[in-house]
Design goal:
By secondary structure, this protein is an alpha/beta fold. It folds into 3 domains: 145 residues, no CATH class; 122 residues, Histidine kinase-like ATPase, C-terminal domain (Heat Shock Protein 90, 2-Layer Sandwich); 116 residues, Rossmann fold. Helix content is 47%, strand content 17%. It is built from 15 helices and 14 strands. Strands 2-4-5-7-6 form a 5-stranded mixed beta sheet, with helices on one face. The relative contact order is 0.08.
């Protein structure tokens, strides 16, 4: 799990204990909140309350009602301490929709805190210390994300714009040649277009600076709900070697990752960003091989597979991931799938959550009677699994 994802997960837990005196924050939570550990958990909780107030101030200044809704969902639930059901009633929405709004709000709050955090001087050299300019960039990025949380970036338009700009501005007498493969026009990234554009410009510029006149190839893919843009080129006549410290300097939002790999004479810079329209499928399954198979079946689609191996953690996983659908096995060594299905259907927060029962136990009538949206017998073919997922969403 990426450091930012760990921080977001810990922030979510801290919000649930905003007034508790026995909160024991981790070092990562202190760092991400920009707090000194020596000041204790009380200072961290005060910082979190201030961050929620700041979120409200930005929402107040925004013309977008969604920003107001995001703030209010967090404030009512965690500051005023209302239950999930009471918060949903106050905001005139279903508990499930509230959960989605809260997940979005926690993600935005985590981004704002992560981007604004101050580095510990003992952990950074002078060369890596965040400058005033970088801090200002971080604040602007956080404002962009909050003011337009639904913004997406058309991948084709963004890449073509980046290529055109870099061809004009890259140094050297022989600017790199870009090999652009066909990109589906419908592919969009769940990222503000201005931020993704700067990220890709930084990645291309860094690779071009190292390769000199060598051509750069651009390849795109979609897997497990993530869009990947892979830049590659030959290092055979490298002007300047690449290393991870240079990659860390590329501007990006916290949920975008950039990795550098080198194989033989080739260098690869891979930018990964969540796809727009991503649908999270929570798989309740004790067999990891089956989960791996589901991931292969959904490769190249907007479906993102999240796995919960222990059924006892199902409701905690639902709260943490806000899935769009549950794919449920029945025969598991530590739990009865029929009882889990019953519990899902009885709880207000999960009653409307679509569930596909996928099992060797061919009891379709029982599955539907207990609240399942669909039943799919095992073994399931890839196309049959995708068809079931699509139909379950179409029925919402």
């Amino acid at each position: 799990m990426k450091q930012f994802e760990q921080f977001e997960h810990q922030l979510r837990k801290a919000l649930g204990h905003l007034r508790d005196h026995d909160l024991q924050p981790t070092d990562l939570l202190y760092e991400g909140m920009g707090c000194d550990k020596s000041e204790g958990s009380g200072a961290l909780q005060a910082r979190l309350l201030k961050a929620l107030d700041d979120l409200g101030a930005v929402a107040e200044a925004s013309e977008k009602s969604r920003s107001r809704l995001i703030h209010d969902s967090l404030y009512l639930r965690f500051v005023e301490g209302l239950t999930q059901e009471d918060t949903a009633e106050r905001l005139h929405m279903s508990p499930r929709n509230l959960q989605r709004i809260q997940m979005e709000g926690i993600h935005i709050l985590a981004m704002r805190l992560w981007l604004a955090r101050q580095p510990n001087p003992d952990r950074f050299t002078t060369n890596h210390r965040i400058s005033d300019w970088q801090a200002e960039v971080s604040r602007e990025m956080a404002a962009l994300i909050l003011n337009d949380p639904d913004a997406t970036a058309n991948l084709t338009e963004t890449l073509l714009g980046v290529v055109a700009l870099c061809r004009l501005t890259l140094p050297g007498s022989f600017p790199p040649t870009f090999v652009l493969p066909p990109i589906p026009s419908s592919v969009a990234a769940a990222c503000h277009p201005s931020i993704l554009r700067q990220t890709l410009i930084g990645a291309v510029s860094l690779l071009a600076e190292s390769l000199g006149s060598a051509p750069i190839a651009v390849h795109c893919g979609l897997q497990d709900g993530q869009i990947t843009v892979r830049l590659s080129g030959s290092m055979e006549q490298s002007v300047k070697p690449l290393d991870d410290s240079q990659v860390k300097g590329i501007l990006r939002s916290p949920d975008v990752t950039i990795t550098l790999t080198q194989r033989g004479d080739s260098a690869f810079l891979t930018v990964s960003v969540p796809s727009a329209g991503q649908r999270t499928v929570l798989v309740v399954e004790d067999n990891p091989d089956t989960v791996h198979y589901y991931r292969r079946c959904t490769s190249g689609t907007s479906y993102r597979i999240v796995h919960v191996a222990h059924p006892a953690n199902l409701f905690e996983a639902i709260e943490a991931t806000a899935p769009d659908l549950v794919l449920l096995d029945v025969m598991m060594p530590t739990a009865d799938g029929w009882q889990l299905l019953t519990n899902l259907h009885q709880r207000p927060a999960t009653r409307d959550l679509p569930v596909i029962v996928c099992s060797v136990v061919k009891e379709e009538s029982l599955a539907l009677a207990l609240g399942a949206t669909l039943f799919s017998p095992k073994p399931v073919e890839p196309q049959a699994l995708l068809s079931a997922l699509n139909r379950a969403f179409d029925q919402q």
